[in-house]
Amino acid sequence: MKIPKHKIQILTMFLDMERGCTTKVCDGGRSMILGLTMSCSCNMENQSYEVKMNGSGINEKNALIGVNGKALNGNGNHHKAVKGIVCLAKQKSCRQRWNIRPSEMSINTLNPIRAIVDGMKLTPNPEKPMIALSIGDPTVFGNLPTDDKVLQAMKDAIDSNKYNGYAPSVGYQKSREVVANFYSCPEAPLEAEDVLLTSGCSQAIDLAITVLCNPGDNILVPCPGFSLYKTLAVSLGIQVKLYTLLPEKSWEIDLQHMESLIDDRTTCLIVNNPSNPCGSVYSKEHLQNILSVASKHCVPILADEIYGDMVFPGCTYQSMASLSSDVPILACGGLAKRWLVPGWRLGWILIHDKNQIFGKEIRQGLVKLSQRILGACTIVQGAIESILNDTPQEFYHRTISFLESNSEICFSELSTVPGLTPVMPSGAMYLMVGIEMEHFPEFQNDVQFTERLVTEQSVFCLPATAFEYPNYFRIVVTVPEEMMVEACTRIREFCQRHYRTCSQDSNELDQ
User: Fold this and answer.
1) 439: region left, alpha or beta (phi > 0 left; psi from -120 to 50 alpha)
2) Would you state the pLDDT for residue 68?
3) Engineering a disulfide at 352: which of 35, 189, 329, 510 sits with its beta carbon 3.0 to 4.6 angstroms away?
């Protein structure tokens, strides 16, 4: 028996669909493309097709597709059809060429330190070994090892075979309890639920900024300050407002300037104490004044306290949360600096919210954000109890004593160098040095100054333009003592060679 032509067309289309093919159906010189793998039935007499997707109609209704290039759903509504192509579902790409573009977030992400350093011409003097005073990693030179108790805690965690799998995104409950107990105090009590473990303090800062801010909001950031704050914020479409620190007051915050920057889109105030890059440690009174401004304008605080307790004798460290009566605080910290293990990547957020201002929403937001990437290393989480509870006090004292001694050497040596103004730190691992640029007319700025310092003396200090504070440079004081002395000697030689008095400048111009 001869099969009618229109039935052959229907059967062919049906078989192609079952095979996942794209079927072209022709009728009267017109055509449509059906990119479907579903069943269909046709009514050729009415010049329409009824297409069902897995037994369900398009948009919950059976779709009638007319051969005149228009599509009707069960309610008689038209689906868009262009040049005979019927858009039953989301149309597949018809791109004719490759056009892959980076995301806006990736374009907006910039680390100022990398941007500046990568652009510098750093060719050391081959006759002098390189001394890098630029890297904020206390492990680089091997003179500041962590304590044996810390290493043993890690070995025990590995040998236990208990921490080789995934942990909850916010960290093991037991590990969170340990951190909560370690940092809890009567003025700022903590429980396990107030702690999120993260992949280093950097991720803690990232989560804190992300949970508090939306694109178009702004945050207040110290200047000079850790460059990561801006890197993270700008990539998220968050505006950064820089508040000034005062070198003549040991880098205290210019409170009047800070307060002037607050508006109705300010969602976070970042306070870094002790400070990178300044090495400053704020007094109790100054911290209370900062909290007063935050309270007055109802702005929460992100307290970057990664260098907490790393303060020199004669100074006292106090967490912001221990002084706050009403300001909610997300305190960020970690093992990296105090325990001298930055590569172990364990940090935390401590949620201080006495008056339930953050409420459940911020806490839930942090949990959800932590689930994007499972961060904190499980082995280190397994070792955290012993690390926090068994590390001897002598280890902390020895580290602080070394940092203070190196800071004093550096400050003393550079204080007598014409054209330089070092600021003595009170903690952390850094010292900032001002450059009186008018006495170094060969150089336009701190970047050129530090670049030539590498070329001539093989000493690399980080130009403070990387911290948006030009005409200063930062020295890391974790290098061995003999290296610190040698570096200061070379810096002195460099400055003596290039220093010019105002009269010298005038004479040279006259000539």
Assistant:
1) alpha
2) 43
3) 329
Return the residue matching tokens 């990547």: 345
For residue 269, the Cα-to-chain-centroid distance in whole angstroms is: 16
Checking if the pLDDT of 100 tops 60, the result is yes
Contact 300, 330 (CB under 8 A): yes
- The DSSP element (H or E) to which 149 belongs, if any, is helix 148-160
Q: State how far the Cα of 111 lies from the Cα of 119, in Å rounded to an integer.
A: 12
The two tokens of residue 151 are 């290493």
Residue 39: CB atoms within 10 A of its CB come to 14
* Angle of CA points 398, 404, 408, to nearest 5°: 145
Name the DSSP letter for residue 272.
Answer: E
**pLDDT exceeds 60 at position 6:** no
User: CA–CA separation, 411 vs 417, rounded Å?
Assistant: 10
Confidence of residue 234 (pLDDT cuts 50, 70, 90): very high
Looking at residue 186, its amino acid is P
508: exposed, middle or buried (Cβ count in 10 Å: 0-12, 13-18, 19+): exposed
74-88 average pLDDT score: 46
Q: What are the two backbone dihedrals, phi and then psi, of residue 127, each rounded to the nearest 5 degrees?
A: -85, -5
Average confidence (pLDDT) over 413-422: 98
Radius of gyration of the chain from its Cα atoms, rounded to whole angstroms:
32
Q: What average pLDDT does this structure show over 294-323?
A: 97
Who's near 382: CB < 8 A, 6+ residues apart? 157, 160, 162, 163, 172, 175
Residue 442: partners with Cβ closer than 8 Å, 6 or more residues away = 448, 452, 498
**pLDDT value, residue 114:** 75
Question: How far is 365 from 198, CA to CA, in rounded Å?
Answer: 15
Cis peptide before 168 (omega within 30 of 0): no
Return d(Cα 276, Cα 306) in angstroms, integer.
10
Q: Kindly report, residue by residue over 373-391, the tens digit of the pLDDT.
A: 988 999 999 999 999 999 9
Give me the pLDDT at residue 399, please: 98
Q: CA nearest 259: which of 303, 284, 296, 304?
A: 296
In this structure, what DSSP letter does residue 419 have? T
**Hey, CA dihedral for 368, 369, 371, 376, is it positive or negative?**
negative
pLDDT of residue 51 exceeding 60, the answer is no
* Per-residue burial over 363-375, b = 16 or more CB atoms within 10 Å of its CB, e = otherwise: beebeebbeeeeb
Contact 384, 175 (CB under 8 A): yes
Determine the average pLDDT of the residues in 129-151: 96
pLDDT band for position 7 (cuts 50, 70, 90): low
Which two tokens mark 410? 């550096």
Residue 96: strand, helix, or coil: coil
Distance (Å, whole) CA 68 – CA 370: 53
Q: How far is 44 from 17, CA to CA, in rounded Å?
A: 18
Q: Given this model, what pLDDT does residue 375 score?
A: 85
DSSP count for the chain of H helices, then E strands: 15, 24
